[in-house]
Write a structure and sequence with these properties.
The structure is a homodimer of 379-residue chains. Chain A is an alpha/beta fold and 379 residues long. Chain A has 2 domains: 218 residues, TIM Barrel (Alpha-Beta Barrel); 108 residues, Lyase, Ornithine Decarboxylase, Chain A, domain 1. The first copy, chain A, is built from 9 helices and 18 strands. In chain A, strand 11 and strand 12 form a beta hairpin. Chain A is globular and about 70 Å long. At the A-B interface, helix 4, strand 11 and helix 9 of A face helix 4, strand 11 and helix 10 of B.
Chain lengths: 379, 379
């Protein structure tokens, strides 16, 4: 017998499976249309099940930000990008313990990190592809383009078994609405063209130019030379993504189901989703609050404690009662998923399935090593 | 052989065991000195190990905010307060499945929630103590005091097997420095006195008046009538607690160990602790940023992404190198603990132990029912 949503204990993250499928299909179609390699970032879903759906729709590989994400995803994919600086002996060790069947690419932005990476790869007898990470305006990580990027590519090139494979950038500074991204896209195109020319002059033609993110996902094909995109958020979407027009409100696939637990203080209703469910992430679009109701976007969560969210009722005639259920669209879905161990998949008002958030957390995974000695272990 | 901190993969939450012991001892001594029943809130640590340390130091019971916290804590404690509105059938079911050996107290702030709670208690054949939750200024949950609190107490009283046990309040609106809390404490004292009088007049003398929180922990004895306190954060403390003077900087027991992964952008250093490690919680004290260095509090995290924290180097001569380790004091430790599955206990620079964050997440726990039928299950 199907389980009705009403019977679930709250707060619980629920995913509308039809919307999820639509989102997966739409991005796959975009990548195909523009001949872009789609290498989705798994940070949003941290789930092998959704990763498999992405691969079945033509994704060439996956992008990961943590060693645990790499380990978990190695069970379903043999082409993984570690889009994070490979710094620290413990991190390098875990990287190199990935199954040898995995083709591993690592992004680097410092010459200092290269000798240790090369030594670890050597010891593990594995080739490692390297993207040079460039900063095109976000000012987080990444060398500033032009000469220092070329110098870094050359350093990679001289550190076998590392192989210079291309450049990567994360345009996280572009936060405007999709229709207003023209200037930003033009600037990126200029930066990428300059960099390409310099690399060609240096005899270091990049095989891959990897860009993209969900906010810029639908216009990245306007940057000539980009061959690969790494969107993450698009599978579930969120209030920010809808707010900048990179998806429709109806494409928000993940909501947090919550219960009204108190109406004792006039003018507000308190739900059982606070920072430990919704996270305290700013809306990076017009508007305010921490989340809003799926079916009443004008009702927003204006205050939160760890397990309480306060709905402001001043812009609505709706008067909820204790026990009512609501579905909340969070500002930033990636942090919401991180709070939970399991996601519930729904169709209409019924639970159809659920899946674990396998790659959340940091713990090491006991990998099935395809290159491990078979038979009993030596004592 | 002891493991040195340097060998840990980052980001990782580490707890200085000497500081933890000091914090546990100090709060226990305060409660003893002022004859207050200490019922610590487990939301901060979500760990049976630390709960056991609290109980060994004289805590009369524990306070929980989620059903999972109750289930996990029922393994080490038989006196649990559910300081959360008991709304929703699924939540009530889990509440009533707690081992019958647990003396359960529930906080309520609405008459609507009482019939269902009483019915569930009846079906489970268990007595349930009830605190009436009053709002003394936080404006989150809780009835406004005086007449409506008395009415609610009377409703509880007429719904056996519920037993009116007392009143509870959470003074989360008091955020001033400890030395400036005089007026707020005076106002609380006035409110509590009025309420006590009304309840006495109604023949509903409260056995317990439960208040407190870490920010107000050291002055709650100045509110006459308060018999119980529920601080949580004090075990680990954080940047906000130190900022308002409710602990010393040296009492911050939990830090996030992180690694400098990039210095590519001038004027800053990027560490591998972002919102998925530090959480994006405001500093509720003077200052800015999301966290600061334990040994250089003037260096703060000014920007974050999911796995990146940006240290602003403009107020320091310190020039970190890629690979350097730092220890970060977060603004709000409770949300940090929620991001991780395991906490590492250190003494000096060496790892001494670790413990799981057992009560994080929402999943149901398979309880050892002391009232379950013994022997093989019926088929």
């Amino acid at each position: 017998m199907a389980t009705h949503l009403e019977t679930l204990e709250t707060p619980v993250p629920i995913v509308d499976l039809d919307r999820l499928t639509h989102n997966l299909d739409r991005m796959a179609a975009y990548a195909t249309l523009h001949d872009l390699r789609l290498r989705p970032h798994v940070k949003t879903h941290k789930s092998t099940r959704i990763a498999t759906e992405q691969l079945q729709r033509g994704a060439v590989g996956l992008t990961c930000a943590t060693t645990r994400e790499l380990e978990i995803m190695s069970e379903v994919c043999d082409d993984l990008l570690f889009a994070y600086p490979p710094v620290g002996a413990a991190r390098l060790e875990r990287l190199m313990r990935l199954p040898s069947s995995v083709r591993l690419t690592v992004a680097v932005d410092s010459a200092q990190s290269i000798p240790a990476l090369a030594m670890a790869a050597n010891l593990a007898r594995r080739d490692v592809d390297v993207y040079v990470e460039v900063d095109l305006g976000m000012k987080r990580v990444g060398v500033t383009p032009e000469h220092s990027a070329v110098a870094l590519a050359r350093t990679v090139h001289t550190h076998a078994p590392l192989r210079f494979a291309g450049i990567t950038f994360y345009p996280g500074h572009v936060r405007s609405r999709v229709e207003d991204q023209g200037d930003a896209v033009g600037a990126l195109a200029q930066q990428v063209a300059t960099l390409q020319e310099l690399l060609l002059d240096a005899g270091l033609a990049p095989r891959v130019i990897s860009g993209g993110s969900t906010p810029l996902a639908w216009r990245i094909h306007e940057v000539p030379g980009v061959t690969e995109v790494r969107p993450g958020t698009y599978v579930y979407n969120d209030r920010t993504t809808a707010g900048i027009g990179a998806c429709d409100w109806e494409d928000c696939a993940l909501t947090v189901l919550a219960t009204v637990v108190s109406t004792a203080v006039p003018g507000q209703a308190v739900v059982d989703a606070g920072t430990k469910a919704l996270a305290r992430e700013p809306l990076r679009a017009d508007g305010d609050g921490w989340a809003s109701l799926l079916d009443r976007p004008e009702v927003v969560v204006t205050r939160m404690s760890e397990e309480h969210g306060v709905l402001d009722l001043s812009h609505t005639d709706w008067r909820p009662r204790v026990g009512d259920r609501v579905r909340l669209v969070p500002n930033h879905v990636c942090i919401v998923v991180q709070q939970f161990d399991e996601i519930v998949g729904i169709r209409g008002d019924y639970v159809e399935t659920s899946w674990p958030v396998l790659a959340r957390g940091r713990g090491a995974v006991d990998l099935q090593q395809d290159n491990a000695p078979r038979g009993p272990r030596a004592m």
